[in-house]
Amino acid sequence: MARGYSAEGVILKKTNLGEADRLLTIFTKYKGKIRALAKGVRKITSRRSPNLELLNHVKAQFAVGKTFDVVTEVTTITTHKKIKEHLFKVSLGFHIAEITDEFLPEDQVNKELFELLVSTLRRLNVEEDTEKIKKIVRTFEIKLLAITGYKPQFDHCVKCGGSLSKVGNFISPEAGGVLDKKCSIGGTFIRPISADSIKLLRFLQESTLAKIDRLIITHLLNNEIESRLKFYIEYLLEKELKSVKFIELVNR
């Protein structure tokens, strides 16, 4: 059995251990999500520390350990510098990392999600327009749900299969999509959703990133789908997202 390996990945999370070490959660392209120990990186003299920051896209060497594998060498592919220079984009970058970590089991390879993550961070890094930045994040959320097996149904009422009307529809994470007015009666975990938001979410779900890049979304519509996806995702995870609180604080 090999005692070491190399892997390309994006750093999703870091936790301090002891006086100088750090436990990293890294989403790798060919090994899935792994946790690895970076020894001594919190020391002032550590040369590896700048390479092992959140959202960095890296290539690293690992030694196989009993509890955690250990990072032995690391080179940076990109740090996504422009994300980290902009507080609003930092908050969204952390959000992307958090939901990726939450939805992805350890040691499960998911190349499609990895490529989506890398592409999303690259777009977020260069984009400056606020509404386009929000669109990038909403696109990531809706496509992540589909890739990880939680794809919401927006084509028809998920309960009765009937057509959705222009008004009176509700989104239900419990049911797995949108309910019409009749089927929503008595529902507990539901939120009203406009026909425009349903249409937009369906487009983001099914379209290529190139087509989505050309789409212009209004501020009001961006805010509505942000609220509904937050509700949907937090229901599935059964907890509030830490990054959402940070985003709200930044936006005050």
From TrEMBL:
Tell me the ranges covered by the DNA replication/recombination mediator RecO N-terminal domain, including all copies: 5-78
Please indicate which superkingdom the organism of origin belongs to. Answer: Bacteria
* Gene Ontology cellular-component annotations: bacterial nucleoid
Which keywords annotate this record? DNA damage, DNA recombination, DNA repair
Instruction: Give a Pfam family name.
Output: RecO_C
The cross-references to InterPro entries, in alphabetical order and at most eight, read: ARFGAP/RecO, DNA_rep/recomb_RecO_N, NA-bd_OB-fold, RecO, RecO_C
What GO biological process terms are annotated to this protein in UniProt? Answer: DNA recombination; double-strand break repair
- PANTHER family linked: DNA REPAIR PROTEIN RECO
Q: Fetch the HAMAP family from UniProt.
A: RecO (MF_00201)
**Protein function:** Involved in DNA repair and RecF pathway recombination.
Q: Which family, according to UniProt?
A: Belongs to the RecO family.
Q: What is this protein called?
A: DNA repair protein RecO
